[in-house]
Structure formats: structure tokens, C-alpha cells
Amino acid sequence: MQILVTGGLGYIGSHTSVLLLEKGYDIVIVDDLSNSNIEVLDNIYKITGKKPTFEKIDLKDIRAVSKLFKDYKFDGIIHFAAHKSVNESLKKPEKYLSNNVGSLENIIAEIKLLENPINFIFSSSCTVYGQADSMPINESFPLKKAESPYGESKKMCEEILKKLNNSNHSFKNITLRYFNPIGAHPTGLIGELPIGNPENLVPYITQTAIGKRDFLSVFGDNYKTKDGTCIRDYINIMDLAELHITCLEKLIAVEDENFFKIYNVGTGKGTSVFELINLFENVNDIKLNYKIGDRRKGDVISAYADTTKIKEELSWSTKYSLENALKSAWNWELNLNKDE
User: Fold this and answer.
1) Distance (Å, rounded) from C-alpha 148 to C-alpha 297?
2) What totals of helices (H) and strands (E) does the chain contain, helices first?
3) How do residues 51-82 score in pLDDT, each as one tens digit?
4) Catalytic entry in 96, 129, 150, 223
């Protein structure tokens, strides 16, 4: 089966691409390389012994998207491609709406022309919940006003997918609301590779630990949490990648041509910033230099998942530990810098 993986050279996309190839799927990776590196393609080959088809395409270009669907016959699509920085989205909201929403609209336009139902997995985010009133966050919770244009763009994308489903067009979809993926592939050949300053906590930690940064900024220690720092649900990237295979197999097997499900994807456990820092220090036997900074606009106080629905309906739960994720993240950082 041929699967389109948009944003397939990015963090989650590259790990999922590896597992798809290892499972015997034929994949076509589409990426505009705006927040990824072409060298990831070679590392996917080193891990799997298979080189996927690659197309450098800006999915905002409707003509390029149309040509893509004329050149290939996809059985499934896993749509990762999106700008994902909460902080940048506050400064450049239009960039996020035009890219994240516009690219999906172009893909949906092509899906509507297909005769057979497509198996479609969409990467959403827990940011669609805003600051939830209680924890853990359940899929039935109302979607509040997003704290950032990034979160708003994901809400808009979900609405587009719901409209397509309600139109009775043959379309099988699973939307995954990710919490906070961390870690790297066990080989240390692929991992989170931020371009410029990291937006996520773990690459900031590893870059500080290796000396790329003088100190780690902790954005606020006066939140109403157990230690004053923000709480998040950190999930190992390998668990997250494997879930996409589970979802794809579910969509292929299900006969309902209007199948539509939304799932939270996390561990169900909240970990504070200080707890994560301490755990990283302990598992890697290293001391971090960190300073308390101002709160960062767009950050919610606490967010962790209720994972009951995905466990019951897909028989899926996380296998890898937080310690494993932090060890693999450090191994990835060491590999990145071994020649320096």
C-alpha cells in the first residue's frame, strides 16, 4: 500500500516513516524543508535499508498538490506537515493560518476528487483545549479559545475534517490530539532537530547540557502547580510513532466509509518542568544550569491526557518510559555533536 506522509522529514514524521518502511509500506514523503533537513532522508535509509520516495513540495501550492495526486495513487495519508511553534505563531499568526489551514484545504480538495475512500490520519494538538477547567483532559471537553494562533489553526483544521465527514464523502479519518512528544530513535540517527532556537523543553535541555547554550530558561515558577512550574504530559516519540501504524491498520480494516474518531495521545500523567529537569539530570548523570525567567505568553498552566478512550477503542497504551525518552534524547544530542 502506498502512504503519503506529509512533513515526513520532521520530528514525528521521520520516526513514523521509519516504522512504516519497517512494516513494509511503500511511502512517499512530502516536505518543504522549512523546518527539517534533507539529511534526515539518508538517516531513514541507514535505519531501514530502504529509501522512500521524496518530493519537495510546498503544500500551500495548489498546483503542486494537484500534480502530486495525479502522479501517485495513495491508499492512505498521514498529515504531519504544519508550522508548530506556539511562540512564533503569536508573532506571525497569518503564517500559521495560511500554512496549517491552507495546506490541509488543498489536500482535502484532491481527496474530494477520489473515487475510493482514503485512510487519513491528522496530527492535531492538545492546544485545541486551551486551558482546560480540570485534569486529566477528556476528548469530550469543550474546545476553548486557543491560547495561540497555532492552537487556533489546529482547531480550524479539525473543523474542516468534521465538515468533510458530515458531507458523507467517502473518507475514513482518525484525528490525534498529541500532548508532548519527546525522545529520539534508539539508533540515535533521528530525533528532534529544531532549526534556530528550540521551542520545546527537551531540546533546550539537551543543548544546554552539551554546552550550546549557557543556561536553560524556565518560563515562570509561580504557577498554581505543585512546584510552581507548568505541567505537561510527555510521551515517548517511539510510542507516538507506533500509534500511527495502529491507527492506519484500524482505518484499513474498518468497513465504515465515514469512520471518524478523535483521540488524545499521551501517557495520562502530568510532569512539571522541574520534575523533568531533575529526571534528565538523574538518568544521564549530568547537572543543568537553569535560570527562572518570565512566563511565556501562550503557555497553558497544566495539560495532561485522559487516555481511557484510546486504550478501550484501539487497545493502545504507552510502552516506553520517561527515563527512556530522556536517555534517547541525550544520546541523539551527543550523536549530533560527536564530530565537533
Assistant:
1) 9
2) 12, 14
3) 999 999 999 999 999 999 999 999 999 999 99
4) 150
